[in-house]
From TrEMBL:
Primary gene name: cbiQ
PANTHER family documented for this protein: SLL0384 PROTEIN
The keyword Endoplasmic reticulum is annotated on this UniProt entry: no
Lineage of source species: Bacteria, Bacillati, Actinomycetota, Actinomycetes, Mycobacteriales
Pfam families per the UniProt record, alphabetical: CbiQ (PF02361)
Keywords: Cell membrane, Membrane, Transmembrane, Transmembrane helix
Protein name: Cobalt ABC transporter permease
Main location: membrane
BP GO terms, sorted: cobalt ion transport
Organism: Mycolicibacterium iranicum (Mycobacterium iranicum)
GO CC terms, sorted: ATP-binding cassette (ABC) transporter complex
Subcellular location as annotated: Cell membrane
């Protein structure tokens, strides 16, 4: 896996956040999300502070809003679900614009929307500043089980290969008169998906046997610093990177104290 391999959500830059080792960003992300999730949904001010923390990180990472906001639409299905909760929940009800809505449902909808939005924003921030080649090494440094790291490494490497193969199969069908948008071609599309699955399975077996023949023991070897992997995080980098997570944890603790 070359150092130039990048996933679609990565935004190439040389900001201080980009230069941080991936393991500290992963730990910061997990701690920040846990703090957001643990915050009582009945309070509103903590989520405003969480949003300010994320915006501050965006400014440091030089991530423009026009780049990240369209990519946050991935949470749209959850927002649709949240909109239905005030109508479906029971208990105390309140009149809003002539409609009787559940108070518990409104709080539940608010909690899903705001916590989901903050979680997606934080995850996109890490994705935008972390190259794909850094993730397996970072997980290894965090003592994640080797089998999970191996699966992630192969997924990153071969997802582009499988996507390109699916694109070639689609072009081959179209060149032979197939119309993927027509309902009567559903069978051909399903057969293509099945064929792609079988090819992927066979490819996986061949790759695994090739890895065994080269001495693979279930562990991903550490990459050199010049091969797309930065050096391990220093204590100073850990302290600096965990400032947003520590701030979020302090806000969550304060929220519970003042509730």
């Amino acid at each position: 896996m070359g150092g130039g391999h990048a996933h679609p959500l990565y935004r190439d830059d040389d900001s201080p956040v980009h230069r941080l080792p991936a393991e500290v960003k992963i730990v910061c992300l997990v701690a920040f999300v846990l703090a957001v999730v643990a915050t009582p949904r009945e309070l509103f001010w903590p989520f405003g502070i969480y949003a300010l923390i994320i915006v501050a990180v965006w400014a440091i990472a030089r991530i423009p809003l026009r780049w990240i906001l369209p990519r946050m639409l991935i949470e749209a299905p959850f927002i649709v679900l949240a909109v239905l909760l005030p109508f479906a929940e029971g208990g105390e009800r309140v009149d809003v614009a002539g409609m009787q809505l559940s108070v518990a449902g409104l709080y539940a909808a608010w909690g899903i929307v705001i916590k989901g939005t903050l979680g997606v924003a934080a995850s996109l921030t890490v994705a935008a500043t972390t190259a794909a080649a850094e993730l397996p090494v970072a997980l290894s440094r965090l003592r994640v089980p080797a089998v999970i790291v191996s699966v992630l490494t192969l997924m990153i490497r071969y997802i582009d290969v499988l996507t390109a193969e699916a694109r070639r199969m689609r072009m081959a069908r179209i060149s032979r008169g197939d119309s993927p948008r027509m309902l009567h071609q559903v069978g051909a599309t399903a057969k293509s998906v099945g064929a792609l699955f079988l090819r992927s399975y066979e490819r996986g077996e061949r790759v695994y046997l090739a890895m065994l023949s080269r001495g693979f023991d279930g562990h991903v070897p550490a990459l050199a610093v010049g091969a797309g992997c930065v050096a391990s995080a220093t204590p100073r980098q850990w302290v600096t990177a965990l400032i947003p997570a520590a701030a979020a944890a302090s806000v969550a603790l304060t929220a519970w104290v003042t509730l």
